[in-house]
Amino acid sequence: MAHAAAYDDFASLDVSGKRVFVLTGAGVSAESGIRTFRDAGGLWGDYRVEEVASPEGWAADAALVWRFYSERRAKAGTVHPNAAHLALAQFEEALGDRLFLATQNVDPLHERAGSRRVVHMHGELMKSRCERDHAPPFEDSGLYMDAASIPRCSCGARIRPHICWFGEMPFEMDSIGRALSNCDVFVTIGSSGAVYPAAGFVQRARSVGAKTIYIGPEQPDNADAFDECRLGKAGDAVPALFRT
Ligand code: NAD
């Protein structure tokens, strides 16, 4: 059973010489003004998640899907990294390749804070790709608000958001698996522990003997798998998390 208490009841963790795996979820961006999935009650604005974040939704109404991601792209232009993103970028500076940062978020806030090696397992809002994977993903800040504006690949297929939708395979699972089997400390920040495979990473880290820590205002669904739940907002708890 996890030891759950306010984050400032715990001491900073000495991670000198240790390999650290950090998984972030929607909660790390909440203080930057991006709504979490849970806070939105499974709805993002006026959209139902299955209509805009599934291959079936794309097949049924690609223009609706692009309108949704275009609105999120426009929003991403107005938000800034918070103290948690900035602290993680500083930890990368100090730990170098002993820090592995994987995020479930598609927003660009880790990079804007200065993190250079971020594994976006659910894709990236500011990238697009060919729906037939004819060409690799590319940077794209375009806003496509109707069917006529959806761009085409040179192969003739439509360009889609570079996002892992429900029912699709997350990206970079091989490098994530290697990092999990090699870590001494595993930390999840701001993820409800309800979306797999990410919610299962803590078990894999535990199985190799890593110390496991959760950070967020409430205990996640998979709280039992953590040694400690440090309760609080990411912006307060993350800067004090490690001694490097
Ligand atoms: P979730 O919405 O299911 O859970 C968010 C968690 O963050 C909750 O447990 C909540 O208690 C916690 N939280 C809220 N405020 C916080 C704060 N200030 N500091 C720390 N934690 C806080 O999100 P999820 O577990 O990441 O999974 C939902 C799916 O939707 C994922 O694929 C996720 O990437 C995606 N999503 C992404 C974004 C984004 O890119 N920013 C936003 C919403 C949802």
Short précis:
The protein has helices at residues 49-52, 55-60, 62-76, 83-95, 109-113, 173-181, 201-207, 234-237, and strands at residues 3-6, 13-14, 20-24, 43-44, 47-48, 99-103, 118-120, 123-130, 138-139, 159-163, 185-189, 211-216, 228-231, 242-243. With 244 residues, the protein is α/β, with parallel strands linked by helices.
Walk me through the structure.
This protein is an alpha/beta fold and 244 residues long. The protein is built from 8 helices and 14 strands. The strands form 4 sheets. A 7-stranded parallel beta sheet has the order 1-13-12-11-3-6-7, sandwiched between helices. Strands 9-8-10 form a 3-stranded antiparallel beta sheet, with helices on one face. The chain is 26% helix and 23% strand. The chain has helices at 49-52, 55-60, 62-76, 83-95, 109-113, 173-181, 201-207, 234-237, and strands at residues 3-6, 13-14, 20-24, 43-44, 47-48, 99-103, 118-120, 123-130, 138-139, 159-163, 185-189, 211-216, 228-231, 242-243. Nicotinamide-adenine-dinucleotide binds next to loops.
Lateral strand order in the biggest sheet: 1-13-12-11-3-6-7
Helix content: 25-40%
Q: C-alpha Rg, in Å?
A: 18 Å
Give helix and strand order, one letter per element, not per position. EEEEEHHHHEHEEEEHEHEEHE
Q: How far is it from the N-terminal to the C-terminal residue, by CA?
A: 28 Å
Q: Determine the strand fraction and express it as a percent band.
A: 15-25%
Strand tally, please?
14
| Chain-averaged pLDDT | 96
Low-pLDDT residue intervals, each spanning 5 or more residues: none
Please, how many helices? 8
The assigned structural class equals alpha/beta
What is bound: which ligands?
A: nicotinamide-adenine-dinucleotide
Which term fits the overall shape? elongated
Q: Main beta sheet: strand number and arrangement? A: 7 strands, parallel
